[in-house]
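Help needed: design a sequence for this.
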């Protein structure tokens, strides 16, 4: 899944003004019922169903039943619209607002919520967010998760690195899951049918004795029942727990 868009590639100041509510509202002839929120939510819905490449000002105007120029009274262009879309879908969920557990449980919740976010909005994987525009959703989300993991006792730069680590892991798993679903849809082959098509050839290869370790693997080694996401997440958290314990002992 190739990257097709880049956040912060438009007028960054204008994007921030619109996200934080300090931008000027249209004053000349806005279409009744047309709002910035409706424009952004419609763009997100379009991206969810058809991909980010389907989102254009012209297509959006058709979806909204208005002229393309009417949209430009609300948002300068697609680059700024993308920033607003990211802010829209990245709003912190209710689970983080009511969370009461320790740092490990907080990171578990954060990781699972981030994975679910990618499942709901697969187009996020097509956006280069290496330089995010920090709107209300990003800032609020960061503030909340920092409040939960601050008791880890790590340096500030290390706390940010923890989030980078978790987000990178989640994005990798999400990419694999989203691509698998897309492959099944595009080829019209289920996972079972796909592997069954390879089975006769693979069985002959395994019987040759050239790959004894692979041939000796249990039947469920590649099974879909195993939760690879949770296994990997827990190992990351185990490693962090060791670090936190070391820092705690050193501080005494």
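Sure. Designed sequence:
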């Amino acid at each position: 899944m190739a990257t097709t868009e880049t956040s912060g590639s438009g007028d960054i100041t204008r994007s921030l003004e619109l996200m934080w509510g300090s931008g000027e509202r249209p004053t000349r002839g806005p279409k009744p019922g047309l709002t910035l929120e409706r424009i952004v939510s419609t763009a997100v819905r379009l991206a969810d169903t058809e991909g980010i490449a389907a989102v254009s000002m012209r297509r959006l105007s058709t979806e909204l039943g208005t002229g393309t120029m009417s949209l430009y009274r609300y948002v300068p262009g697609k680059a700024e619209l993308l920033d607003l879309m990211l802010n829209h879908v990245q709003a912190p969920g209710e689970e983080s607002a009511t969370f009461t557990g320790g740092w490990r449980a907080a990171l578990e919740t954060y990781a699972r919520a981030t994975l679910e976010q990618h499942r709901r909005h697969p187009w996020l994987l097509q956006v280069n967010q290496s330089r995010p525009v920090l709107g209300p959703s990003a800032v609020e989300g960061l503030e909340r998760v920092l409040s939960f993991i601050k008791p880890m006792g790590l340096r500030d730069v290390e706390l940010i690195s923890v989030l980078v680590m978790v987000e990178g892991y989640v994005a990798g798993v999400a990419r694999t899951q989203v691509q698998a679903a897309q492959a099944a849809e595009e080829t019209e082959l289920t996972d079972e049918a796909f592997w069954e098509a390879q089975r006769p050839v693979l069985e002959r290869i395994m019987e040759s004795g050239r790959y004894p370790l692979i041939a000796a693997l249990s039947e469920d080694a590649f099974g879909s029942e195993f939760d690879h996401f949770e296994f990997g997440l827990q190992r990351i958290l185990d490693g962090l727990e060791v670090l936190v314990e070391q820092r705690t002992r050193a501080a005494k």
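The beta strands are 5-6, 127-128.
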